[in-house]
Structures are given as C-alpha cells and as structure tokens.
Structures
1.
Amino acid sequence: MATLATNRLQAGDRDVVLLHGILGSRRNWHSFAARLAAARPDLGVVTVDIRNHGDSQGFSPPHGLDACVADLVASEGQAFSTWAIVGHSFGGKVALRLAQSPARRVMRQLVWLAALDCTPGPAADANGSTAPASAEVTGVIAALRQVPRPVVSREAMVSTLSAAGLSPAIGQWMTTNLRPVEGGFDWRFDLDAAVAMLADYSAIDVWPTLEAPPPELTVRFLRAGRAARWSAADVQRLETIDARARATGVGARVDTLDAGHWLHAEAPDALLAWLLSALPAVDSRQGA
C-alpha cells in the first residue's frame, strides 16, 4: 500500500501539517516551514507530499479530495500527530473536506485549520453559471502539456514556460518540482493524475465548512487578493461569512493578503506574519 512522503522539520507531539497544491510538492514549503518552526518551537512542523506528487507515488485511483483525506487519516499517528493543518489551494480544499469527514475523529488533537486561496464551491453553481476557473492552475497545466520531456536544464524549463505565457516567477517556482532523470529533468508529479484531482476539486462544495465548522475546530481562510479565481459573488460570500464570525463567533474568519495565488512564494513574509498571528497557543482550544 502506498504511503505519503513527509518531512519533519521540528520534533513535537503537536504538529502543524503543511499541504501543498496541485503540481507542487512538500519542497515548496521547505523554507517557509523552517521559518515557522523557528518562530514556534513549541510545535512540530511537518510537510507532506499529497498523492501523485513529489515522493508520494504509486497511489491507485480514483484520485480526488476524499482519497487525499483518507491518505492523511491513514498517516495520522505514524507520520504526524495533527494539531493544526495549513493547506494551499488544492491542499486547502483537502483540509476543508477533512473537516466535513467523520474520519477526522481519528485526529484527536486537531483543533485548528487554515485554507489558503482555495475556491470553496464547485466550478458551476446550481443555476448552471460557471464560476471563474482556477485560471492560474489551468494555465500552468496547458503550458506543461507543451513542454518536451525530459527538459535539458532548469533554465530551459523557465524559458519554455515563459514562452508559453507564464511569468518568470511561476516558471522559477515550477523548477522546484523537477527531478533529475536520464537526459535532463522531469516532473515530480503525475500530470494525468493531477488533472483528475483538479477535476474533483472543481466538483466539490466545502462552503458549509466555512459557514458552520465543527464546534471543536477553528477554521481560518486566507484569500489571495490578486488571484484571478475570485468572482464578485464569492468575495461577497466570504465577506458575509467573516462578518458573521467576527460578530457571533460562528463560522470561519476570512482575511485577504495582497498577493497572487502562489502566496507562499510571492509573499512569504506576509503569509508567515498572518499565520503566526492566527495560530493559537498550544494549550488553547480556540483560534485567534
């Protein structure tokens, strides 16, 4: 049976588990996780490769949010003891889906969860209107389809992706997801499986988790203000959830960071400051 690949940056019996998004790997979080560990020595810090990404290979279909939830639950108590989860994009929706799942009860220490710039609803609403797709991710996937593999060097990868219309910053970030192979470099993820996972991401609704989280779980949401994925209706819904949470304590608190979708790469200082201000003390059962 395939198991999740993890990296522990700091020992502890209460872990903050960091989940990356589609096309990423736990390596994307490494420098950020090291800074978080230094700032919170009372916590363990663990980065995880979700299925079909990084070193977490060999997982059987179907590939989707519920499968990723099951992977985390299966790893609980072995690879980590989850006290808090921070998930970006697809990883954020995995975390919110976990909050909806009865299997979450296996994670007896879990008290806090943060989802970073993931679209909570399905791609099409009940009236059939299509919400803005995750333009950043779908654009990257389209560009990756054009890349000859293996690529001869990391620099060549940046040039190829830039020629396909991606920013140099995104191209440079994508090189962290390359692994050496004969003849050059190839991806650390299974692109076809990632496409299937993204389709499931676009079909699942986790708005109920934001509007009414389980009472024993504090949920925070961080939106990237310059990301292309947000409709006016979704922004309004998030603002309504936040206003209610601040007034009554029911629902998720919602904040906005002035950054694009890959906020841990574009604005790591601001993201770390937000996370440190939001994470509760270890002995607390409530978030900030």
Note: The longest strand covers residues 82-88.
2.
Amino acid sequence: MSRHPPGTQSIQRTILILKTVAERKEIGWRLTDLAAHCGLEKATAHRILACLAAERLLQQRPGDRRYVPGPLLFELALALPAYAAFKEAVHEELLRIANRADAIAFLHLRSGEETICVDRVGRSQVQPLTVIGTRRPMTESTAGVAMLLAMPKPAQEQLLESIQGGSRAGTERRTLVYRKILSKSRRYGFGISRGDVVPGLAAIALPVVDAMKRPFATISVMGPLTSFDEDRIQKIARMLAGEARRIEREHRALIVEIAH
C-alpha cells in the first residue's frame, strides 16, 4: 500500500475488500475471515463493509450472512461494454483451442499488476484451481508470466520489483515456486508450468498484444502433466501463438478500447 499517495489508505482498503469478495463470489466471506485475509481490524472491515452494502456494491446473503458482490458492480460494468464484447468474441477461439489441445482453455486480462481470469472452457482429468474471477499477481500465474515476458526488460524488472516488494509477495515457498516458473518460462520463451503449482497439472500461456505490442491478455491451456511431453508442448505453444495473432487481427477495434 505504500506505493500510493498519503491519505488514500481508506480507498485502498475499500478496493482490496471489493476485489477479495469478487474473487470468491460463490462462497462469500464471513466478516472475521475477510478482515483477517485483508489484514484489517475487524471493526475497520465492518465499517467499510457496512458502507459498501448500503451502496449496493456488496450484499449479505440472507441464508448465511456472508458478504458477496452487490448489484451495483454489474450496473457500473455496463459503462464498459467493450470488455464483455471482447470476452464473447474470443469465446469461440477458446472452444477451438480447448478441443485441439484436449485440455482446459483460459482467457486472462491484465489488471494492473495482476491477472484476472475472464473465461474458461473445456475439461481435464486434473482440475486447476483457476476459475472465472480468479485474480493473482502477475508473478504468481503462468498467464501473468507470459504477459511479463512480452514486456520490455526495464518494464519487467520494474514490475517484478514492485510486486515482490509489496505485501502480496506471498510465503517464501510460494515465491520460490514462481521464481522457478519464471526461470523456466524464460528458457522456453512463453509461460509454462509443469507440475510446479499443482502436482500432475501442466499449463502453457501465450500473450495477446495491442497495436503497440503491449501485452494485455493471454490465452492458455491446462491439462494433465502426462499429456504434455516436449513435442506436444512446442506444438501447443505454436497453436496458441497462431490463435493469439488471429485474435489481434480480428478483434483490433475491441482491443483498442480495452488495452491501455
């Protein structure tokens, strides 16, 4: 939080709560658990939650009183139709990717220093934890690493320093795991994980860039590690690269609206 100007702490805390609740939209959050997860005093979290609920940005589910997203989030999102249109436009490509790779295909968008999963199709014997709405720091997902590798070196180093120096760097073990993934991905030239996060699960991710060659999205696949030998990894990577270029060509107008 120290990267932001002084006097914005309450805003940062509010945004953190909104993002956290949105990520676990089906399960919801109890006040105590949410406060602990966000590193806030229970009284502070309660004040923020009460305000957000009054404004309909969050709501308490009648059955268990857990906090879940509120209707105003949907209403505000209507001001950005290009995002929904891009997701819908790419959905058919994802279906084709999932069928060709016999795996689960994902679309991620960049969200500041994080990635967010906006679409998921397909099936796999080994189920990844990533679902629509999952949000992670760019250094803590194969999709994020793929975006990172497409950035100029100075921008890569600046973002790595910013994320790893912040409170979201995670446990030491988790940090070591993703350093290993980043190192491996640099050797391959695209985002790749082979059982590094979830045992028995492999993932490959390629970036989608805008007209200025800035990565703003990724397409990726996840499936059983046993199905991802070296030859198949390279074949899937080439297929994803081709699909990424197709998306960049065919949806240029939408990309201009959402990539910045």
Note: The beta strands are 58-60, 67-69, 104-111, 114-121, 135-137, 191-194, 201-209, 215-224.
3.
Amino acid sequence: MNNVRPHLKMLTDEQVQEIHKSVLTLLATTGVRVDSPSALAMLEKRVGSSMVEGRSVRIPAEVVEWAIRSAPKQIQIYDRRGNPKFTIGGVEDRTRFGIGVTALFYQDPVTDTPELFQRRHMQDMVRLGNKLPNYDVVSTIGIARDVDENLTDVYGSLEHFANGIKPMVLLCSDEHKFDDVLKMFELLHGKDLGEKPFIIPYFNPVSPLVMNEGTVDKMKIAIERGLPVIISNYSLSGATTPITSAGTIAVLLAELLAGLVIGQLYKEGAPMLLGMIPVYLDMKTLQNFYDPQSVLVNLACAEMMAHYGVPHCGTSGSGTGWGMDLLAAETFWMNTLTFSLTKGGLAPFVGDTLNSKAVSPLTFIYCNEIIEQSLRLSNGFQLDEAHLGLAEIQKVGPGKSYVSAPSTLKNYKSGYYVSPIFPRWSMEKWLSAGQPHVQKKLSEYAVEYMKDMPIPEDHAELIAKGEEFIREFGK
C-alpha cells in the first residue's frame, strides 16, 4: 500500500541539537525553583547537595539525559471499561483531540449568553464529548459553581467520571482536593487506576522556571498510583517568557525537562507527556491570545519531543473568539490543521472561548468538523494500481463521464467530505431558504444533536456512590 501523506517539518537536525544544548546549559546554570520541601529533599539526595541552594536547583546534563532515556516512548491509553483506545508516542502516532477545559461559564447555544458553569453543564458536556466521534478524550470541562466552593473539584470530577467512558484528562483547581478525587475514583472504579489507565492528570509548572509545590506534589501522588501524567506549561510571551519564539522555547522546554527529571526520580519509567501552551499578552488590553508564532512554538515542541522520544501534549488553539465565530474559527483551523501534519501527540483542550472563560457546545460541535477534515487531509491518499485505475480510465476514454464508472459507484459516499451541519446549497436555494447565517444552522443542529446523548448504564449507580463518598468526605 502506497500512502501519500503531507507532513510539516520545521527544525533541522542541527537546530534540534542547538535547542537541546541551550536548554541543558540553562538547567545546569540558572536551574529552576522548586517550591515543594519533599521534592527539594529528594533532589538534594538524588542530584547532589551542591546543586541545591535554598529552593534553587541546578540540574546537570547527565541527569536530564538519564530522565529522557528513562521515560517510556509510548503510552497505551484505555477507556473506563478497560478497552485499549489509542497509543500516544511512537512513529505511527497521530494527533489526538479532547474537549475542555476548566471554564467558569457556559455559553448558551441559542443566545450565546454566558451563564455560570453548573454541575448540569458538566454532565451534558461530558456526554456531548463522548458522543462526538472525533474527540479521543474528554478533559475537565468546567468548574461547577452551583455547589459548595470547597467541593467543586469533587462534584465536577464525579460528573466527569459518571457521564462517559472515554479516557479522561483530569484537572483539579484546588490542589488539596486532588488526592480526594483519586480516592473517589478508586471507590467507583473498584480496581487499580494504573492497571489500564484511562485517567491522565494534567499539571502546570509556573513560568518562568518554577516547579510550584502543588504541581510537584500532585505529580507524585499520580505517579505513585501508576497513572500517566501531563506536564504542560502555559506561557505569556513577553511577560512570563521572552517575547521571542526562540527564547520562549528555551524557557518552556527547560521547565518541561525539569518536570521530567522530577517525575523519573519519583519513579523510574513513569509514563509522562510533555508540552506547551504558548500564548502572547496584549500589552494594551492585558488579554492573552494566540498568534501564528504560538502555533510554530507548538510544532517545534512536538519535534523536540519526537527527538527525545517522549510523548507530546500540545496546544488546542482554544480561547479566542466571542463564541463559535470567525475569530475562533481562524485559530482553531490554523492550530488543528498544522498540528495534524506534524509529529503528533495530544491536544486535550478544544472548545473554550472568550479568553478561555467559557465553553460552548457550538464550539465543540464545529471543532469536531475541523478535526475530521484536518485528519482527512493529513491521512493523504493512496497511490497504487487499484486507486490509479488506469484500466477504467482507458475504458471511459476521452470526452466521457465517470458518473456511472464502477469506482464512482463504489466510493462516492466516502470519496469526499459531507458535512452533517452545512448543506451544499446553490445561491438560489440559499435565497429561497431566507438567506440563513451559517451560525444559525450550527445552532439548530447543536440543539437537535444534544437531544440524544449517550448515558452510561452505570451512571445512576456511580452518582449515588460518589455522592455518598462526598457526604462522608464533608463530615
């Protein structure tokens, strides 16, 4: 089988080595700040007391190289039922996508009006993410704001767990609740969470060059349970990282490799994904935004992770726009398409908008289309004798039609993309329909689509057991 596939490559081998050398120098000289006392004690013992001064830790190149070699090159991810779903890392890896993440508001699909994110929204959006076929994972979608503030992570995680079976990327806004959430999952799941991992906890260092206590200690809790973890840094170029793309890559990559070292020292061979969310800070409005350079940094990171053989978790291009509009679409398309053409990994946070404060089912549904078309492009086409069909071309001959040709009759339903949302109307058809705006069609489709979303058969049982856990937990 001869598959013709497009591929996007940025860095030469020499540039990869130059970046890596610069990052090793940065870690060995400037180092990182580690805020966790237990992690500092471990680093002092394992890396050497001469490398630790107060909370500042310098990491020798040989320790970084050891951590890179120790980390698994591939990670098998399962669903909640224990079925293998996909592998992250390796030569055949492709980009995987997920919806989320941690929004404070829900944007109504009919009016576009934001309202406080509630527990019922988590329920509905988890079910929506499980129904939409092009999402491989469902990330923590929002922070429930209609429950006790001290229990938002626990209630939200219960809805996350009980309303779907796809793999979960887990975020906890309250670092002190993370262990409690995992204990609840262990009660609900009834088996070792690390045996067939379907939960992937997500952690952020603090740029520039800070391994904050919450991140490091939660990472230890997850690794001890055998769970794969994501270390991903969120930067504001020109504020928390240098404004140049090269400088941003150096700082963020140093943070990621420092996280890798700590994770591997906790447990050699711990499965870890590394990646960046590189955005800019508008100095006039103080709003963060994606720039084409953000996309380039994401792609460069993917290539560096491929060089290291460490699974990659990149950006999803979310947060721009005022809902599912032109502003959002341009960033989603740019990020999704380019990411699909590179070394692969996980893009877990598709669908948030309004500077990442809100989520909208319209965005989730439209991005499902973007992902499908991007994957159709990145999958390329077959170039072999059967697909060339020279015998058929010779039989049809000059000046005739292929409408009734055997290859057309066999393949016309799958030969090109057909949107379930937007019909291919002529101008006359559009005029006769009242000149509808595409967003109206999207809204109508979303409302209808959401009337029938899958509910796991064990949903009621899990909710009951989880709420009992929360009642006992709150005493």
Note: The chain is about 45% helix and 15% strand.
